[in-house]
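User: Round two. Same drill as before: sequence, then structure, for each protein.

Assistant: Same drill it is. First protein:
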Amino acid sequence: MKLLAALLLASSAVCTAHAAASDRVFDVVAPFEIVGLDPSVSGFIFQRMQITETLLEADAKGQPLPALAEQWQVSDDGKTWKLSIRQGVKFHDGSDLSATVAAHALNVARNKPGILRSANIESISAQGRDVVITLKQPFAPLPALLAHSSTSILAASAYDANDNVLKVIGTGPYQTTLVEPPQRLAAERFEGY
């Protein structure tokens, strides 16, 4: 069954839903705009609509939870974080999630104005199935940054040669079928989730 989620953005925080027997559409109206395709500016919307995902999530108390990273380790000096990528995850374009792709997405996010700049990161790389983040100094809140929508992991094919986001290609249960900034987004269920 095809599920179409349309995000109609307006200045009202009203949510309406209707489920016609033939198309099962869910319309959402909310007080925010799609500023662009890049998670650094509109990641919140794509994450909330379950199109993109991050390496970590947070529970109701703010404690880190596994997401695209199934586990993580921190060195004794607090400067090296290794996050093991969950196996078998597919992007909406059919490509596989890997540590290399995740590290690239984080490096793109790191080079834009945003939350990762506060971590004082020395490098982000891939080693086998691990994303390795090396810090210049310990930074205990790093898991919160890796759960933030601006650090959503996109497929390699989502970027052009200059790392501009051309298309939102995530790993979530829904994939985009239409993005018309600033006020329209349509998505359908991703069968590969």
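Second protein:
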Amino acid sequence: MVEIVLEKLFKVLQDARVKVTESGYIPGQAFPTEQAQLDALANVLENTALFGDILLRLPGITHEVYRKSKEWELLARWSVSFCNETKVYDDTDSKLLLLMAQELRLVPRDPNYINPYRKKAKKEQKNKENSEQESISKKSKKKKEKKKRGPRLSHAEL
């Protein structure tokens, strides 16, 4: 299913790219007034965001399908940079583009970058949480052991 969606998505994206570049639209300019140019621009913006959602939520299968085509890699690189330059997206969508670019390694990954939908990331996160819980429980056990004191005899009772 992902393969079929990506094939259609990149076909629409490729057609839209051709129309946008033929129209001479430069990102950041006022929107074109002609309906065909507006549709092409909307297709680029919408399909890039859709690809980002699919990529971030289904990273394993998406990477597997995506790597098969060098054209898709070039098109994704172009569309991400184009969308960033348009300044159309709000903060949330801009963050999605940044995460998408990091997932595709179009930009260097942030040291704290983790895709929570990646199986490997989930395992690492669980291991990290388990080790934190173990260290917390060890600390609390040590504290509890130190606090355990029974009744004491005074010197007079000895």
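The chain is about 70% helix and 0% strand.

User: Perfect.
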